[in-house]
Design brief:
Layout: H1 5-16, H2 20-46, H3 50-57, H4 62-98, H5 110-117, H6 126-153, H7 155-162
Helix pairs in contact: 1-2, 2-4, 3-4, 4-5, 4-6, 5-6
Subcellular location: Cell inner membrane; Cell membrane
GO cellular component, one term: plasma membrane
Keywords: Cell inner membrane, Cell membrane, Membrane, Transmembrane, Transmembrane helix, Transport
């Protein structure tokens, strides 16, 4: 968990080989532990709540408690975290492609475009600017969508705005 996901992804792509499929596999495998830790911490924080204890006292099993009570509280938080993490993963893919470890050139990808434009930076700087701007806008858009989802789905924020 303390090992940087970027280094782990670089290593996995080095083992698996370049290409979009291998990059996606490497990023997914390097990020799963973080998501598992987040789900675990959410479940631990919720399992001592009154509604979960009442369900357990009424005879519900672990699966029933998870499906009826915990999944409904965990899935919105996980959806928000995943939406916010999409921007990070986009930067991760672009960085790997820029370094030549991810998607390779004839495939249109922003990291490849920025890397190809490096040789023209002094004569045609806009060739590097536009893919960088597109990447920036896309990452910002996913962050804004994640913030909006958090504002919409977080029950604590909903009750605070109501008062």
């Amino acid at each position: 968990m303390t090992f940087p996901t970027s280094i782990l992804s670089f290593f996995m792509v080095g083992v698996l080989g370049t290409g979009l499929t291998n990059v996606i596999i490497a990023i997914a495998l390097s990020h799963w532990a973080w998501y598992a830790r987040m789900v675990r911490s959410l479940v631990i924080s919720l399992r001592q709540r009154e509604f979960v204890l009442a369900s357990r006292l009424s005879g519900a099993g672990h699966v029933r408690v998870f499906v009826d009570h915990l999944a409904g509280a965990v899935i919105p938080s996980l959806l928000v975290l995943a939406t916010l993490d999409i921007g990070h993963m986009m930067l991760h893919v672009a960085g790997m492609s820029f370094l030549g470890l991810g998607v390779t050139a004839p495939t249109a990808e922003w990291g490849v475009m920025i890397n190809d434009a490096r040789q023209y930076i002094w004569t045609q700087p806009l060739q590097m600017f536009w893919p960088g701007l597109a990447l920036f806008i896309s990452v910002m858009a996913f962050n804004l969508v994640g913030d909006a989802l958090r504002d919409h789905l977080d029950p604590h924020l909903v009750t605070e705005h109501a008062h």
